[in-house]
Amino acid sequence: MYVCVCYALSKTKLCTLISQGAQTLSALQNKCGAGTGCGTCVYKLKNLLSKEKASEAENEGNIKGPGEKSSPHRQD
Fold first, then answer.
1. Closest by Cα among 3, 57, 48 to 25
2. Contacts (Cβ under 8 Å, ≥6 apart) of 28
3. Is 28 within 8 Å of 9 (Cβ atoms)?
4. Based on CB atoms within 10 Å of each CB, which residue in 1, 53, 61, 69 is the most buried?
5. Stated pTM of the model
């Protein structure tokens, strides 16, 4: 599915660009032009950026360091 029809940019492509460092609307616009044509997709881009940031934050919280237990309950 295209998020930005003007530049034929799919959600997959945009998520890849976000994961590669385009973490803001302006960075995404500079990288691929999304949202700079008719502008209709800007709200979708903002939503996608928010979801990707939330997903990254959630994934960072789930990463366990050496010796950490996956259970929140302490087991001695």
1. 48
2. 14, 17, 18, 22, 34, 35, 45, 49
3. no
4. 53
5. 0.73
pLDDT at 71: 46
Name the token pair of 28.
């995404």
- What is the token pair recorded at 14? 């945009």
Domains parsed from the chain with CATH numbers: 2-55 (1.10.10.1100)
pLDDT for the residue 64: 53
Give the mean pLDDT per block of 10 residues along the chain (76 residues): 96 95 96 96 96 82 57 48
User: Which tokens belong to 72?
Assistant: 């929140």
